[in-house]
UniProtKB/TrEMBL annotation:
Coiled coil: none annotated. It is an enzyme of class 3 (hydrolase). Its EC number is 3.1.4.4, 3.6.4.-. This is DEAD/DEAH box helicase. The lineage of its organism: Bacteria, Bacillati, Bacillota, Bacilli, Lactobacillales. One of its GO terms (molecular function) is helicase activity. Residues 415-579 form the Helicase C-terminal domain. InterPro entries: DUF3427 (IPR021835), DUF8090 (IPR058403), Helicase/UvrB_N (IPR006935), Helicase_ATP-bd (IPR014001), Helicase_C-like (IPR001650), Helicase_Restrict-Modif_Enz (IPR050742), P-loop_NTPase (IPR027417), PLD-like_dom (IPR025202). Keywords: ATP-binding, Helicase, Hydrolase, Nucleotide-binding. Residues 230-382 form the Helicase ATP-binding domain. It comes from the Bacteria. The keyword Nucleotide-binding applies. Pfam families: DUF3427, DUF8090, Helicase_C, PLDc_2, ResIII. The keyword Nucleotide-binding applies. It comes from Lapidilactobacillus mulanensis.
Length: 953
């Protein structure tokens, strides 16, 4: 359908009758809804990405607002697309730094209006044969794009529409009367610029909210204090606080010491710099005389103080530790306690016997095998990770940019690249160009640069310095004094960058850091968050942190969406979603990937072996360490450590996996395990809840169920209870549904049998339930499946945009028997149901394809589709598609075979009858065969981010 028809349809839908089908050109009211992760920012980014040119007229611009569309602008520049922006100096809101940032965008032409009271907020986008424009209350600021309560309307028009002509003519008039932005203009503006008092100043953000002259706990601290007090009331002598860097752990500890009121208190940390700052923070909370506070370190021996702050290096020495009786301190706090596996920490902790021991860390998960959780009796008093901390506004917002690393002769930097490639002159110029483009707060960099190896870091620091960008290199070979000296120079603005490898991952506090640059493979989500966290402490010197991640050809790129989203389950579907839709980031933070960088991540996700035995064992033992017991499927689900389906299907069942790693706590027979195997592979996903309800009933007190009983049971649980569904559930649980190799694989795995017209437990299930370990495993799997079922629409056969295998589609669609995948191919149909399976990117070796099918998602509402070959206009399925009144047609699609055997459900479709035609196509061996071409209309418009993911090559 051409744009004229689409627009006419949308105008009817938007302004005349909402029940008329709309299109992607529908008018849309846009209101920021953070609770739904729905923002104007999403729409603005989508419009920028897909336009042919653009024209913005916005009064107020901030650097973070501009940052939110920089990757999209960079991608447009790669395609030779540019745009214009008209702004002003109205009220002095726009500072000189944002004008500098605007000037750095090569495909953006900027002019300054001199019109009095310039206060417009309009965004105009040119398409191939129509325009889209957004007009409302939102300026180009992150607050307006994500958080503020703003009203904006998106409208579309053909280029000869009256309203769009008025808008274009008006913008051209204003443009002709405005002044071009250049360096000379910015310099003059900066000389006289004064920040207006009406502009909100950066928050005074130490770690604590201040009320008058008193420091009061923030929301996180109040909850943690309550939990710590309740923990001690149970008789516990130890507690662990897990909290993201910069969320106020030190003040939290001081508040807890105040509520505990110890006679003597000991604070242990590994660096003297942290010690001095901690002492100052505690004094603000606890008050008292200076003599109450003392430091025990290499340079100070104030051991008589009531509140003693000690470095581990000093207090672990016998001549100091043994000065104190074991019960001398009532309260001992170990900061950065993930280091407690070291001998010095163990020596001190084992010696002292306080009434309460508190450990604080941002990263309790260790790679050295030491169990921090065990050290604190598994008492986690409070835990707040990155996403929650952002939601609570405890951290400085960050603008993350996933940028493609340097490319030469079609090759991008990878793990095996040699030093010469990493420090090549062209790469250095490329890095500097990108760093300048994405910038930082007020364009005054105070940055940490994490490199892949020492020789690279040292050479790059030298090369940056030679180009006038003052930089130094630090490694583990530099002592504490040298590190602190360079940190001070960085914060004072004497140098701009510190290049390093891993020494600043943790345990260093540099509040003024406003830029993090990542020039290395992501080794783990833990290290990624540690390095990101170096810049997230709030400070009056910055409003946001810029994170520039140069993404090369690294196998571990899949860890990037895991780390940013906090979803470490290993579910590839989630990883893909968290790459193409980054609206999960809370508050004023934003995540953006350049288009090529996204493709690098998708490629890494597709090739990652996330279900290898070694990977699953690692996740298993990490969770076991935390729980102090063998974890089961529900534990994996609730902790989000691992997708339970990965571990449940690796060795036929979770029991099989436990046996393989020698962690099973009981034994079940091979026949019993057949039941677990079937449940794990077919029902654990929770796609249809009816089977789960039946099994729970039979495992309980119910001995038999009639068809009517089944219907009542389903209705009681809010589930569909038609005869078709009841019969399908029976077919599945008797294994009668399965055919071919699947039926052989599940032999003996029936959960039910039919006796005298009644559903009863199968003989095998009755026998298995006599084994308590089997019953425990089954109930664990059942509870996990019930949790999984929460993401599915129980009122419909399929849930939009969830993934299904072909046999899942037939099972949920109530087919009487499974068909082998090869026999289904691209589609199958029966009893009024027509299921289509489409692979969008087929590749040269598309399995079984004799013809180069050109199935295409045309837009968010339309799909071009071809039948199997040979087919003619009078073939049986084509007759159905030409007269589909009594049929429901479902469309499932996957991007490519690299994504596995699962297909996304795109919804119901309707054939556009006038598009159905027979065409002839050439086969691989040179023959010609007839197929039928047609266009489907989707009942539900594809979300734009999902549409782009599916259609981006």
């Amino acid at each position: 359908m051409n744009s004229s028809k689409l627009l006419a349809q949308s105008l009817k839908h938007g302004f005349i009758d909402k029940d008329i089908a709309g299109s992607q050109l529908d008018p849309k009211l846009i209101v920021n809804q953070p609770e739904k992760q729905d923002f104007l920012l999403n729409t603005l980014q989508e419009e920028v990405e897909s336009c042919r040119s653009f024209f913005f007229s916005v009064a107020f611009i901030t650097q973070d607002g501009l940052n939110s569309i920089k990757t999209q602008l960079a991608d447009l520049a790669q395609r030779g697309i540019s745009g214009r922006l008209l702004t002003s100096t109205y009220l002095g809101f726009n500072d000189p730094f944002v004008f500098e940032s605007l000037l750095r965008i090569p495909n953006l032409d900027v002019r300054i209006s001199s019109k009095n009271g310039f206060h417009s907020k309009g965004y105009l986008f040119e398409r191939s044969d129509y325009y889209t424009f957004i007009i409302g209350s939102s300026n180009l600021t992150m607050s307006a794009l994500k958080l503020n309560y703003e009203w904006n309307i998106r409208l579309s028009s053909l280029d000869y529409g009256e309203v769009i002509l008025q808008a274009k003519n008006h913008l051209e008039d204003e443009w002709s009367q405005s002044k071009p932005l250049d360096s000379e203009w910015i310099q003059k503006y900066a000389e006289t610029y004064q920040q207006p008092k009406t502009v909100v100043q950066p928050d005074m953000i130490e770690d604590e909210p201040v009320l008058g002259e008193y420091i009061v706990p923030n929301k996180m601290q109040k909850m943690a204090l309550k939990n710590l007090q309740e923990l001690r009331e149970t008789g516990a002598k130890k507690g662990l606080v897990i909290s993201a860097t910069g969320t106020g752990k030190t003040y939290l500890a001081a508040f807890d010491v105040a509520q505990f009121a110890p006679r003597r208190f000991l604070f242990i940390v590994h660096r003297e710099q942290i010690l001095k700052k901690a002492k100052e923070s505690f004094k603000k909370i606890l008050g008292g005389n200076d003599s109450d506070y003392g430091i025990l370190s290499g340079n100070s021996k104030e051991t008589e103080a009531k509140y003693l702050f000690a470095t581990i290096q000093t207090i672990s020495k016998d001549n100091y530790l043994e000065q104190f009786p074991q019960d001398y301190f009532d309260y001992v706090l170990v900061d950065e306690v993930h280091k407690a596996g070291a001998g010095s920490y163990q020596k001190v902790i084992n010696y002292l016997d306080p009434k309460f021991l508190l450990g604080m860390t941002a990263t309790p998960e260790r790679t050295d095998g030491f169990n921090i959780f065990e050290l604190f009796d598994y008492n986690i008093a409070y835990e707040i990770r990155l996403q929650e901390a952002l939601e609570e506004d405890l951290l400085c917002p960050f603008n993350y940019f996933g940028v493609t690393d340097y490319e030469k002769n079609g090759q991008i930097i990878e793990t095996t690249s040699d030093l010469a490639e990493l420090v090549e002159e062209e790469r250095v110029r490329y890095l500097i160009e990108k760093i300048n483009y994405y910038g930082c707060y007020q364009n005054d960099a105070k940055g940490l640069v994490f490199c892949s190896r020492k020789d690279e870091a040292k050479k790059l620091a030298d090369l940056f310095s030679s180009k006038g960008i003052r930089s130094v290199y630090l490694s583990g070979e530099d002592d504490i004094d040298e590190r602190e000296k360079q940190i001070e120079r960085l914060e004072d603005g004497i140098i701009s960058y510190i290049f390093t490898v891993d020494i600043f991952n943790e345990g260093v506090d540099i509040p003024k850091i406003n830029q993090i640059i990542l020039l290395r493979n992501t080794q783990s989500s833990i290290i990624f968050i540690q390095q990101l966290g170096r810049g997230l402490r709030k400070d009056p010197s910055k409003k946001f942190v810029t994170v520039i991640d140069f993404i090369g050809n690294y196998r571990n790129n899949y860890m990037i969406p895991m780390a940013l989203s906090g979803d470490v389950s290993g579910n590839k579907n989630n990883m893909r979603k968290d790459t193409f839709d980054t609206s999960y980031i809370s508050g004023l933070s934003a995540v953006n990937f350049e288009a090529v960088a996204k493709e690098k991540i998708y490629s890494a996700i597709d090739s990652a072996k996330l279900d290898s035995v070694s990977a699953l064992k690692k996740a298993f033992f990490q969770l076991k360490m935390r729980l102090n017991r063998v974890p089961y499927l529900l534990d994996f689900k609730e902790s989000n450590v691992l997708d339970p389906q990965l571990v449940a299907t690796k060795e036929s069942s979770y029991y099989g996996f436990l046996v393989k790693i020698h962690e099973n706590e009981g034994t079940i027979s091979e026949a019993d395990n057949q039941l677990m195997k079937f449940f794990s592979k077919e029902l654990l996903s929770g796609m249809r809840k009816q089977e789960l309800v039946v099994i729970r009933a039979l495992v309980g007190e119910i001995n038999q169920l009639s068809t009517a009983d089944l219907q009542s049971l389903f209705i009681k649980n809010g589930l569909t209870a038609t005869d078709e569904v009841v019969n399908s559930v029976i077919n599945v649980l008797t294994i009668d549904f399965y055919a071919g190799g699947q039926a052989k694989s599940y032999h003996g795995a029936a959960f039910i049998q039919i006796e005298n017209g009644q559903v009863i437990s199968s003989a095998q299930l009755k026998t298995a339930l006599n084994n308590e370990y089997f019953k425990f495993l089954l109930m664990d799997a059942l509870k996990t499946a019930e949790k999984n079922s929460e993401k599915y629409d129980i009122q419909n056969k399929y849930t939009l945009y969830q993934k299904y295998k072909r046999r899942d589609v037939l099972r949920l669609g109530c087919w009487k028997q499974q068909m082998v995948d090869q026999n289904i191919g691209g589609y199958t149909y029966k009893d009024g149901k027509f299921a289509i399976f489409m692979t969008i990117e087929k590749g040269e070796d598309f399995k079984g394809a004799q013809i180069a099918y050109e199935d295409t998602i045309l837009d968010q509402n339309k799909v071009l589709y071809y039948t199997k070959a040979p087919r003619h206009i009078d073939s049986p399925e084509v007759k159905i598609l030409r007269r589909p009144e009594n049929w429901v047609i479902y469309l499932f699609a996957k991007k490519s075979d690299d994504e596995g055997k699962d297909f996304y459900f795109l919804g119901q479709v309707t054939p556009e009858i006038n598009t159905i035609k027979e065409v002839v196509k050439e086969t691989k061996d040179g023959d010609r065969k007839s197929v039928v071409e047609l266009i489907f209309s989707l009942k539900d418009q594809l979300p734009s981010t999902f549409f782009k993911y599916l259609t981006t090559h």
